[in-house]
Amino acid sequence: LDPARPRWIFVMSTEEYGGQLARQGHAEAHRRLAACLDQAVAAGRQPVLVAPPPCAEAMRGRRPAPPGLVALPFCDHPTFMALLLEAEHAFYWNVFSNSVMARAVNHLPVFFFDPGHLARAVPPLHEAGMRLYFPGATLAYLDQREPLSAARLAERAAAQEAALAPARENVRRSPAPPEVLAALFPPGAGSRERARRISAPQTY
Which of 16, 118, 151, 163 could form a disulfide with 93 if both were Cys (CB 3.0 to 4.6 A apart)? Predict the structure, then answer.
C-alpha cells in the first residue's frame, strides 16, 4: 500500500464476476475493469481490487499493469474491512453485498456498477431488499463505460450522504447481532454451537 495516495477499492464476488463474463464476454469484462483501475491511477489514487483469483490474476498480469495496483484473490475479514473502511471510495457490482452497509453507516461513499446476481435473478427479492436495507434511498449507480472522474465522484458522494440517511437510521434501529442470534436460537440443546458457527468470522 502507498500511504501517499488515497485508495479506491473495487469489490467483486465470484457470482458477480461470473455474471459480468456471461453478459459482456471475457475480453470486454476485463477491459472495462482494467479501465476502472487505470482511471483510479490517472486520478492520483491507488487501486485496490478484491476479486476471485482468476480476475485478480488477470488484472495483475496486464502489461503495463496499473502502477501500485493491489489485487487480492480474496483475503481474511480483518484485512478486508481495514482496506474497505480506509478507502476514499468503494465500488461494487452488488447492492446487497454484505459489507456495503459498513461503508454506509460510517458515512463513506459507495458506488455500484450493477445491482448484482440476486437482483437480476429474483426481481421481487430486489424490491424487498431495497425496501428493507435502503428505505427511501437512491443508490449511486455508475456506467462502467463512462470514465471515473474524481471530481464527479466527490459530487455524487456529497449527494449520497443525505440520500443514505434513512438507511443509516434503519440500521441504528435494528437489533444487535446477539439479539438476532438469541431470537434464532433460543436456549436449548445444540443452539449455542449453531450460533457460534454462524457468528464465526468468514473469509472474503
Answer: 16
Task: Give me the chain's average pLDDT, please.
Answer: 89
C-beta of residue 130 within 8 angstroms of C-beta of residue 109: no
pTM: 0.85
Average pLDDT over residues 47-57: 96
Extract the C-alpha cell encoding 39.
482511471
Q: Reply yes or no on whether the pLDDT at 15 is more than 80.
A: yes
Determine the Cα–Cα distance for residues 159 and 95; give it in Å rounded to an integer: 18
Mean pLDDT of 121-142: 86
What does the chain look like in DSSP terms, one character per residue? --TTS-EEEEE--HHHHHHHHHHH-HHHHHHHHHHHHHHHHHTT-EEEEE--HHHHHHHHT-SSPPTT-EEES---HHHHHHHHHH-SEEEES-TT-TTHHHHHHTT--EEES---HHHHH-HHHHHHHHHHHSTT----B--TTSPP-HHHHHHHHHHHHHHTHHHHHHHHHSPPHHHHHHHHS-SSTTHHHHHHHHHS----
Rounded distance, CA 136 to CA 128, Å? 12
Query: By percentage, how much of the chain surpasses pLDDT 70?
Result: 92
Cell of 95: 447492492
- What cell numbers appear for 8 in the block? 479506491
| Confidence (pLDDT) at 204 | 38
Amino acid at 12: M
